[in-house]
């Protein structure tokens, strides 16, 4: 694996510790006073950069320094921030939003034509299509082929994961959440996502967080919660992106053609 491929993989897998103080986490971006026209200008620039990178089949990590965020212009961000915010920068470009580069707060923002500000949470999940196999009925799975306990469907493997959320931070998750999914196989033609689904944050908190709560000093607390792609598909909608994505059903049909049957 080349250094560039390693860096791209790091973007998807790195987790960072941030200050999750409730007041700072719920802080509004209204103080930035960005107009819709300026927001759209920045998003249009980012979209152009993205399309160029994909057309040239570049690793997406290459163009992150060329992006606008909610508060910075291209070339301003230190490499350390680019690494820390990579999991938010790339999804925000696809979603037509602008990333928040502060160490606290939401992941990104979207401004509507009427001036409304939409707070966004991004989650990224990955799968290696070369490790997918077909079971009975031609369903697609990952895991051990000889163990019902260990095998898992691809729509369950792809998921949004949460850990160690206090009650205050749980409430801060009541915002639109977008799950971006990608195929990390070395055979993948493009370094991109293949689908994106979004869900109302109230559903995440009320339906999924509450059943995973444990008692603690700051109670209730969540040690771990996982929301599967299948749940995003059941309770949410497919996200609109600035460029069309393959889609989970098309991806499954394509992978089924070469996945071994075990």
What is the strand and helix layout of this fold?
Blueprint lengths: L2 H11 L8 H4 L10 H20 L23 H17 L2 E2 L8 E4 L5 E11 L5 E2 L5 E3 L9 E2 H4 L1 E7 L1 H6 L3 E8 L9 E7 L1 H9 L3 E2 L6 E8 H7 L1 E2 L9 H9 L6
Helix pairs in contact: 1-4
Describe the structure.
The longest helix is centred in the first third of the chain and has 20 residues, at 36-55. This protein has one domain (3-256). The two termini are 28 Å apart. A hairpin with a 5-residue loop joins strand 2 (108-111) and strand 3 (117-127). Residues 1-8 and 10-31 have low confidence and may be disordered. With 262 residues, it is of the alpha+beta class. The strands form three sheets. It has a six-stranded mixed β-sheet, with helices on both faces. Strands 4-5-6 form a three-stranded antiparallel β-sheet. A three-stranded antiparallel β-sheet has the order 7-11-10. The chain has nine helices and twelve strands. Helix 1 packs across helix 4.
How many distinct beta strands? Answer: 12
Number of continuous helical runs: 9
Secondary structure: helix percent: 25-40%
Biggest sheet, strands in spatial order?
1-2-3-8-9-12
**Overall tally of structural domains:** 1
**Which regions are unreliable across 5 or more consecutive residues at pLDDT < 50?**
1-8, 10-31
Task: Encode the helix/strand succession as letters.
Answer: HHHHEEEEEEHEHEEHEEHEH
CA gyration radius, whole angstroms: 19 Å
In terms of structural class, how would the helical and strand content be classed? alpha+beta
Distance between the termini: 28 Å
């Amino acid at each position: 694996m080349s250094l560039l491929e390693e860096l791209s993989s790091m973007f998807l897998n790195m987790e960072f510790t941030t200050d999750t103080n409730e007041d700072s986490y719920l802080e509004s971006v209204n103080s930035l006073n960005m107009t819709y026209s300026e927001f759209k200008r920045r998003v249009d620039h980012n979209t152009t950069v993205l399309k160029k990178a994909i057309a040239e089949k570049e690793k997406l990590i290459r163009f992150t320094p060329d992006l606008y965020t909610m508060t910075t212009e291209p070339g301003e961000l230190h490499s350390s921030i680019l690494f820390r915010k990579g999991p938010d920068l790339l999804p925000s470009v696809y979603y037509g939003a602008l990333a928040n580069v502060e160490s606290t707060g939401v992941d990104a923002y979207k401004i509507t034509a009427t001036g409304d500000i939409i707070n966004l949470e991004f989650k990224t999940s990955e799968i290696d299509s070369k490790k997918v196999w077909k079971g009975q009925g031609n369903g697609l799975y990952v895991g051990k082929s000889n163990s019902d306990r260990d095998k898992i469907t691809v729509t369950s493997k792809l998921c949004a994961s949460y850990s160690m959320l206090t009650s205050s931070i749980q409430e801060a998750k009541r915002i639109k959440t977008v799950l971006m999914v990608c195929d990390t196989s070395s055979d993948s033609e493009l370094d991109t996502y293949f689908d994106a689904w979004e869900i109302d944050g109230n559903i995440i908190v009320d339906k999924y967080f509450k059943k995973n709560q444990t008692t603690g000093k700051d109670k209730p607390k969540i040690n771990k919660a996982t929301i599967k792609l299948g749940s995003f598909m059941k309770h949410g909608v497919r996200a609109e992106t600035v460029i069309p994505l393959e889609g989970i059903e098309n991806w499954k049909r394509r992978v089924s053609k070469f996945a071994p049957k075990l």
